[in-house]
Amino acid sequence: MVIYLQNPPLFYSIxxxxxxxxxxxxxxxxxxxxxxxxxxxxxxxxxxxxxxxxIASAFFMKALSNVVIYYIIPSQAKALLPIFNWxxxxxxxxxxxxxxxxxxxxxxxxxxxxxxxxxxxALISAIYSRDHYTAFYLLYSLILSFTTVQLYFNYKERxxxxxxxxxxxxxxxxxxxxxxxxxxLDYFLQTNLGKIFYYIGQGFQITSYLLLFYVMxxxxxx
Amino acid sequence: xxxxxxxITIIYDILNAIYNKNGRIKxxxxxxxxxxxxxxxxxxxxxxxxxxLIDEERVKEHLFYKLTDDGIKFLNDYxxxxxxxxxxxx
Lengths: 222, 90
Prior knowledge:
The structure holds two protein chains of two kinds. By secondary structure, chain A is an all-alpha fold. Chain A is 85% helix and 0% strand. Chain A has seven helices and no strands. Chain A has helices spanning 12-40, 43-76, 81-106, 112-128, 133-158, 161-189, 194-220. In chain A, α3 runs antiparallel to α4 (112-128) and α5 (133-158) runs antiparallel to α6. Chain B is an alpha+beta fold. Chain B has one domain: Winged helix-like DNA-binding domain superfamily/Winged helix DNA-binding domain (Arc Repressor Mutant, subunit A). Chain B contains four helices and three strands. Chain B has helices at 7-20, 27-34, 38-50, 69-87, and strands at 24-25, 54-59, 62-67. In chain B, strands 1-3-2 form a three-stranded antiparallel sheet. In chain B, β2 and β3 (62-67) form a beta hairpin. The A-B interface holds A 32-33, 36, 39-41, 44-45, 48, 105-106, 150-151, 153-154, 158, 160, 162-163, 165-166, 215, 219-220, 222 and B 8, 76-81, 83-90.
């Protein structure tokens, strides 16, 4: 069963803007992390920058899908719907791959067999999540939860404000995905709370990216 | 367990030792502060001089190592990367 849960129409332009802001912030981390790789020659920074390239690409694809459905589809009708669907699929696949990579690096998993296994799982889930809204948000929340817990331990060890902020970023992002996941309840229960859930979820998501921006500014000014 | 320092951390420790002595240090002090063998320190000093991160200065027969502008930039960049690494738990 394919369920299309789409955002409120009036929110498309704001949504697109939020995707582009998030994309810009992700690209900032790409730049910083790549610079760190060039400086230290440590591959972990290179992989981290790749993960954020995937995140930036995911936001670009999502923004592109929004533009297609909001500005073009009303006039071109069904002809462009596959582009929208593939855009959403690319967003989900890239997001899952990126955050799987970030989780692997944060948890410091170095066993190549485990890394390969988790990447294969993420790929299969990404393909499966194309038509299953819940599968994507469930897996995404799960990956983020593991990363958040690890970042909490990191904060306990470092006791720094920026480590706390980074823990909060991933915590808020996890909450955002859980709220998006709760949208499915609205579909079945017909509570009409879907729009509110959507706005709150988007609010949480952009808050986490703005906090990420703040952390990067603080680091750059050190 | 004592953690082994990587190359870049050793370079940072050497430059930071010079920085903490107001940007100028005697070789004997640097040897003590950097926690390296004499042979290792000589190798690192040569590398840092080649990369223009430090410079030599002679004051009344005494040799000093001096931090250059590039050396200060290296220290600042390293601190930012360290902060990034620690904040993101990498």
